[in-house]
Every structure is written in structure tokens, then in C-alpha cells.
Amino acid sequence: MSANKDKLATAGSHHHTHNGRLVDLELASFCVFNSSLGQREGEEHQKIFLFFPVTTDVDVQIRVIGLLEAVSKFMRSFSDTDCRSFLTSQQLHVIFQAEPDFWMAMTLNLVHPSDTAGPRVGENDRTRNETIQEEVYCSILEKAYKMFKILNGPLSLAEYPDTKPLKQKLQSFFADYLQKTPFGKLDVLQCFDALSWLPMNRKVFLSVQNVVNSISVNFREVRYSLMLYWDQVVWNDIDLPEALSMAHYITKFLYPDLMEKDIQAIHSSLPAQQFAQGHLGRFFFGPKNLQDSEEVVPPTFAYLTDPESGLAVRYRLVVYSAASIAVCLFLDEASSAASESTKYYRNLDAYLGPAVAAIAPDLAEQYSKQHNPQWSYDSPNVRYIFLNESNLSKKQTLADRNQTVQVELLKALVDIKEDVTNRFDDTEIYEKVLHDCWIYGKRNFQHSLFAVVTQRNADLVLTEGKGPCVFLFYFRKS
Are β-strands 427-434 and 5-9 bridged in parallel, bridged antiparallel, or unpaired? Predict the structure, then answer.
């Protein structure tokens, strides 16, 4: 056994087996506060920038934030890193420092399915709370801020001497965000956050590149572009972490009702010749009626990090959707006056519609072939997720709707991920969680693989053969 390879064999104790879901939690409160404000007695309310529910008494808000600050300061005495979460018998508290002095936090009430029937024999608060994956909620809180930041800019008192506009932005964004986020039943795969890139052959890639380049030539105010086919990235010009936030915003919030079966229905009902005859496109944030020349379109902005200065630069945001393709354009803010007219959107629609319709059949074909052995490793006994940190990409078969993975296995993957991330770069971990089932985790040169190996009479020797094969398959292609 090598020094950098841990082989673990432990028995799993979790008993929930529904498809990748955690036990129910209810959002009790959500808040954003600035710890540098409200230092004097009687002025504590000044540090509160956002608190849900909004009907909560101010004294209760102050006590909740005071508890979060106290625990965070206490834990800092024992660790160089900030406290990210702490769990009690009744609640889960998650804390995230978004910017210097700015904190986001949420408190969730634990709802155990067995509460009404009483605890099981031998069950206590510790064993019941083992079903809570704190890492999932920490990643959700961090993701929420990144999405807020790209759409509203960073939290900064320097940018807002008067804090009222910033509080209004927070209220507007998170009122919608909290309503659309099912905190009680989050998928544990949220922890493995990365971009899914659509595999394309050379011909299709050049067609996409031609469309993007022609947009930049015909609309000089367009600085950057991001193109998605359903939930997979086709083209990207912006910084990868910001592309991840924007892709999440488009797929989870702009398209809340689109599921994979709807996309398949679109593919089957709109053949290639129908795309050639016309296009069915729409703008998000655009004019309600493209024929109404009098309508003025209110601007929607996005904030991207300047690679030289590191500061957030504001751009006009335009999102166009047609034939399962989302085209996200970032325009110079100086062009905002011209791009607020309905005429501008008509011209853009007249150009984007046919261009998107022309490449849609090819992208649909590539989408249907993405499980081709040339591009993906396919084995009935191995379900996995492969992460490439250098380009924030992922390949995975864990979320295959045709075959579910037991929740205790997904939870074990999250635990393995934490162990692998906190160790040296070259790390391998094996763990037996159920009969005939092993969990495998490996990280090497900014590449990580987390796999579930299920096979009758599976042992450590068999697992050692299957896990590294998947890793090498994608490592050689990255």
C-alpha cells in the first residue's frame, strides 16, 4: 500500500433510500448583515441588511444575528478558518462570509419523518442528525451569493454610502431566490458544482464559433457571449466561475419549468426542416411586444470581473432563447441607451433567430450522442462524477434518470469529497458502505473522480481496477 492511498472499510448506517434527497428541512430564517456596523448598544439593528421572514420582530433579528456572530468568533479561537455551519438538535445554522465584514446566514429547522411516531429504539439526536449533509447547504449559500454578485455587483459599503439601495437589491433578489429554492429537499450533487460542456465534433464547433463571431461583428457593442444548449455549455467568453453562476441562473431560474422530458419532446416535434422555415425565439428581460416601437425596455445588468484590475465591471445583459438554446450577451454599458429601444431588439431577434435555428439540429444531435463511448466512460457497475478544476468542467452518470442511486451512497460521496479535498493533491480513498458496494475517490493534478462501484461479490481488488480506469479515461482527454 502506497503512502498516499487510504483504503477504508466502514459500514453505512443511513436508512433513507429515496432518489438523492436529504431529510426534510424548513427554512426558519435567512439574513445578510455587516459585522462592522451597529457596534454601539441600541444601534445593533444597523448591521441588518436583509432578514427573512420580513415580519420577524427586530429584537428577534438582532438575537439571531448576535448568536451567529458569537459562535463565529468563538470558533475562530480554535481554527484559522471561519465557522461554516453548526448543528443543534433542532436546527442547522449555515454561515458564509461573502465579502469583508459582510455575512450571509440561514437557519433551517430539522424535520425528521419519525417525529410523529416517536424515535426508534436506540435512536438519539446524534444518529438522527447523521442524515444532514451540512456541506450541501454551505455550497448552496455560497452559490446564492455568487449569483447575486453577478447580477447585482459585490456587497460593498464604499459603493453604497447610502445603504438603502443595497438593501432594496438584496430584498428584490432573495425574495425570488428563496421562493424558488427548495431548501428542504436539496440534491446532494449540489456539492459537485461545475460546468457541463456539450461534446461537439469539429464541424459543429466551427458552426457555433461562426455564429458567435458574426454576432460580435454585426453588433459591435457585444463584448462577451455565453451559449447553452439546455443545461450544457456550448460557448463561453467570460471567466469560468462567473459562467458557472450565469449558467445556473439561466437553467434553474429562467427555465424553472423545463425538464429533460420537455427538451426531448421539442427535439421530436421540431425537425430540422421546421427550423429552416422560421424560428421561435424570445427575450428574457426584453420588450413585451417587439412591434411596439414606443416601448422602452428597462435595462438589466450583469457584473463581470475585469481580468486586469480585478474590479467588477457592469454590462448590459441580454438573454435570448430559441430551440433549447440560450444565448447570453454582455453589452458595453455605454451602449445602453441604444439597446433600450424595441428597434434594437427587433434587429437582434431578426439576426439571432435564423442563426440559432441553423445550428439547433446539429446541437440536438450532439446532445443525443453525448453518451457515445468515444466521449464518455460507460459501465453498468460504475456510476461516477469526474471534475476538472482547471476548466470547471464535469462528466457524470450519477444523475441518470433511468437508474437511481441510493441516497446513502450519494452522502458517502460527499463525505469522500471533503476528505479528498482536505488532503494532498495525490489522494485515493476507498470505502465500503453497503454489501457489494464501494465508494471511490481520487484527486490528482486538479482532477477528481468520485465513483460508486456496485457489483455482486465486489471486493477491494475489483474496485481498485474499475475506479482508476474511469479516472484515466477522462484524465487523458482533459
Answer: parallel
Beta partners for residue 232, in sequence order: 229
Q: How far is CA 177 from CA 105, 148, 315, 319, 347, in A?
A: 14, 9, 22, 19, 32
> CA torsion sign, 258 to 264 to 268 to 274?
positive
Please state whether beta strands 222-229 and 232-236 pair in parallel, antiparallel, or not at all (unpaired). Answer: antiparallel
Closest of 33, 423, 388, 436 to residue 196, by C-alpha: 388
- Per DSSP, what are the bridge partners of residue 97? 103
- Cα gap 85→95, rounded to integer Å: 6
The predicted model scores a pTM of 0.82
Q: What is the mean pLDDT of residues 399-416?
A: 68
Distance CA 185, CA 207 (A): 40
| Neighbouring-strand partners of residue 387 | 394, 448
Question: What mean pLDDT is reported for the chain?
Answer: 79
**What sign for the dihedral angle of Cα 418, 425, 370, 212?**
positive
Residue 73 to residue 278: CA distance in whole angstroms: 61
Task: Round to whole Å and give the CA distance between 159 and 227.
Answer: 31
| Cell numbers at 78, concatenated | 480554535
> What are residue 203's phi and psi, to 5 degrees?
-65, -45
- State the pLDDT at residue 474: 64
For the chain, counts of helices (H) and of strands (E): 12, 17
Predicted pLDDT at 437: 79
> Lowest-pLDDT range, 42-46, 231-235, 341-345, 349-353?
341-345
Instruction: State the sign of the Cα–Cα–Cα–Cα dihedral 22, 108, 243, 363.
Output: positive
Cα separation, 421 vs 25, in Å, equals 26
115 grid coordinates: 417525529
Contact between 443 and 427 under an 8 Å Cβ cutoff? The reply is yes
CA–CA gap between residue 144 and residue 136 (Å, rounded): 12
Distance CA(81)–CA(249), nearest Å, equals 29
